[in-house]
Every structure is written in C-alpha cells, then in structure tokens.
Amino acid sequence: MTLRILITGAAGFIGSHVVAAARTTPGLRLRLMTHRAALAPSATSGTAGTGTGIETVYGDLTDPATLRGSCEGIDAVIHCASQIGGDEPTARSVNDHGTRALAEEAARCGVTRIVYLSTASVYGRGPFVRLRPGQAEPDPASATSLTRAAAEQHILAAGGVVVRPHIVYGTGDRWAVPGLVGLVRQLSAGLSGCEARHSMIDVEALGRVLLGAALSPKEPSGVYHVNHPEPVSCSQLLSTVVDELRLPRWATGVDVDEARKRLADVPYALHHLGMLAVDHWFTDERVGQDFDWEPGEGFAASFARHAPWYRRHLGG
After folding, report:
1. Contact (CB, 8 A) for 220 and 291
2. Are 83 and 95 in contact (CB under 8 A)?
3. What are the residue ranges spanned by the domains of the chain?
4. pLDDT for 171-182, tens place per residue?
5. What digits encode the pLDDT tens for the residues 109-163?
6. Distance (Å, whole) CA 249 – CA 89
7. Which CATH number fits domain 3-169+201-227+281-295: 3.40.50.1820, 3.40.50.720, 3.40.50.150, 3.40.50.80?
8. Residues 139, 140, 146, 150: is their CA dihedral positive or negative?
C-alpha cells in the first residue's frame, strides 16, 4: 500500500533530512511544502525506493488560505516548519497560529496522523537530569520556544505526536555548533571544570525518527524526547568540536564564572555558555520501540562525518 506524506519546512535544516530519509523508504509518495527557500534538485527529482513519488506545493503558515488543499489525499503530516528567532508577533503568527491552521486543514482532510517537530527549549533553562516527558511543565524563556510550546498544544489536541530534541547537529546546522565555535573564539581560552551533560542527536537520525513516528503501526501520540540515549559532557562536546574542526587549542583554561565575565558584552556567546554550563539531559525509552528507530553511533563518531561540512561552512 502506498502512503502519502506531507512534509512542511522541506527545504529547512531538519526537514530536508526527513525528505532524504523518506526517499530511501519504499512505498511512499511525498508532498513537500515550502515557503521561501527553494528545494534542492535532489529533493524533488526522480524517485527513490520503490514507488516513491514527489510533488511540491507552496504554503505560507502566516496565510491559512495558502494551506487549503495541502492535506488532500494525505495519510500523515510531518510538520517541520518553524520561525526560529525574530520578534514574538512573527513567531506567534508562524508557530502558533500557523500550526493551528495546518492542524485544522489536516483534520478537514481526514489526515489520521500529524507529527510536530518541537524542541526541548520549551522547558526553559535547566538543569534537567534524565528528564522524561510529563516530569516537568514547559517554562519557555524566548519568543521562539513560547510560540512553539503553543504550537504543541494544537498538535496534542488533534491527537498528534510532539517530538522534542535538544541539541541537533550535522550537515546544514547554522546555529548549534557554529554558536559553540563562536563561543570558543570569543573566549580565547579553554573552558575548564564544566562537566554538565547534554542530550544530542544527529540530524540524519532525527530525520529517520520523525519519519518513523509518521509510519509507526503503533499509532503513537503525545510528547516524546528524541535524542541519542548517551548524553555528552560539556568538555567532551567542546573537545570534539575543537579537534574535528581543527580549531586552536588554547594553552590556558578558564572556569565558567570567569568565562561569564569575559563574555559579558557578547550576548550570543553568553547565551551558549549559559546553556552549556548546566545539565540538559532528556530521556525517553519509548522512542526506539514506538518508532522502530535505532539511535546509531555516538556523538564523536557521528560528528566526525559532518566535520567537513562544518569546516566549509565556517570558512576553514
């Protein structure tokens, strides 16, 4: 039987990897929704797997009229489109109101499953240690996370699946690892004594798990934490990034308090330091079974595969 899947944000960092995973899965027909960015030719040309067909549609989450008909004939929606950053009115228009409009259109068209890519940032700043879904209420600290938490409620009300990863890295990442590199360069020193643990996931693995949530015969619903089961310590994270991206190793190191003083006038670096300095460790044993998903290799090995892309992106 052929299944028809709509993927929003198909040209984005994570959405493009969902498309890549779907193209290797037999028996799917894909409808790719994009708003601004053009889809790469590899995402739309030809077929992949057995019987995989691809079509593209335009949809603007800030204009519900453009969503009309986007879910016709669709079996599942994987909603990856979000407004990241910017002012709250724009974020609310896209993330909150746009997701509500999409969920309503999916319901009108009889779509039986909708999967929403959210973020563990809806919990706010940690520390969080082995946090499972349901053990803490969202406490968002930014316009992005506030409006994405609101978007979650529309998906949950529709009986859908909400996926909350923490740090997502890999080819196409223009925020997480580049932000850490900026932090290291601004600090001009190593960071010592920071062993906070962080949940992380390779974007390719995240693409597979989002597709798995859409295809699972178990009919999952509710919130899932999706990350590699082994957290990564702050020191291991920074050491791996420095080594794989061939950054200078500083002869001296500073502790977190001294780092905060040095970065007081660099808000983006201070933001990354604040996140790194405390535990953000999320867990959920149901993911593998419910989504038929294997997490794959750990951070060090996985990051090494993406390092050439980061080196090109960061200009060496």
Report:
1. yes
2. yes
3. 3-169+201-227+281-295
4. 999 999 999 999
5. 999 999 999 999 999 988 999 999 999 999 999 999 999 999 999 999 999 999 9
6. 42
7. 3.40.50.720
8. negative
